[in-house]
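Write out this protein's structure.
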Amino acid sequence: MSVDHDVGSITLRVANGPGRTARPGGNGHRPGHGLAGMRERVALLGGSLSAVPAPGGGFVVCAVLPLAENA
């Protein structure tokens, strides 16, 4: 995970590794809103979100959020 900033925005980056095989019957958790929910929330703040496969497996999710005084 990393957090960076410049004059006009904050960038949040989270990466994970390859997942494990899901167990039959699920894990007992209800599904959430996933990437669509994250994308919607970031858009409400005037930012952008990307999610791409990582080279060794897993994913990299990056959100760029404008600073309030520049929005």
